[in-house]
Design brief:
Blueprint lengths: L4 H27 L14 E4 L4 E3 L8 E6 L6 H15 L8 E6 L7 H9 L6 E4 L2 H11 L3 E3 L10 E3 L3 E4 L5 E5 L5 H13 L1
Parallel strand pairs: 3-4, 4-5
Antiparallel strand pairs: 1-2, 1-5, 3-8, 6-7, 8-9
């Protein structure tokens, strides 16, 4: 059965609208700006270094860097991660001048400069330890998209802190290059560090 001119015109208009909608959706997908890197927002921050002085965003430039957020009372993830990172650097024959490790405390109440110095020194005195007050800590966490939350204190006032366990990789320009997940395969970790330093 042949369509009437009115029905035929309606069908043409309908299909034209479908095509236009598809083109618009495709253009929106293709032309939209790329999403910001997951984990690093670039929010300005400034903290104190256990070596003395301040450490801010701009100081992340100049040397390929591994950034890890944790706390000295951490029972497992933090000591394991720090031990592995320092071992990885040694295994690859890299000095602190070639690959910097930065540890940012998420527990400013207990992690005093002395506590951080003693703790990090047991792994490698070259690790850069950063600390600050609650506001400075919050700004640093926001800059990397890091989460942390204090658990309930026990009868002695001790508590654990749930926190992001990823290690952030930054190149010599301070640009985000990915993460190392806790428990990631050693071969993959070493490959990532090699690429970071080579780049």
């Amino acid at each position: 059965m042949a369509l009437s001119p009115t029905a035929r015109n309606f069908r043409i208009i309908l299909w034209s609208l479908v095509v236009l909608a598809a083109v618009a959706a495709t253009a929106q997908f293709v032309l939209r700006p790329p999403a910001a890197p997951v984990g690093v927002t670039g929010t300005p921050f400034s903290m104190h270094s256990i070596a003395g002085g301040e450490f801010a965003n701009a100081d992340l430039k100049g040397t390929p860097t591994l950034v890890f957020f944790g706390y000295t009372f951490c029972p497992d993830v933090c000591p394991t991660t720090l031990a592995e990172l320092t071992a990885d650097r040694t295994q690859l024959g890299l000095s602190a001048a070639q690959l910097r490790i930065v540890f940012v405390t998420v527990d400013p109440k207990r992690d005093t400069p002395k506590a951080l110095t003693d703790y990090l020194g047991s792994f490698d005195p070259a690790i850069v330890g950063l600390y600050g007050d609650a506001a400075q800590t919050a700004a640093a966490k926001a800059s990397f998209g890091v989460f942390s939350e204090n658990g309930a204190a026990d009868g002695s006032g001790n508590y654990v802190v749930s926190h992001t366990a990823d290690v952030f990789l930054l190149d010599r320009d301070g640009a985000y290059q990915g993460t190392i997940a806790f428990g990631e395969a050693k071969s993959a970790v070493l490959a990532k560090i090699k690429r970071l330093v080579a780049g």
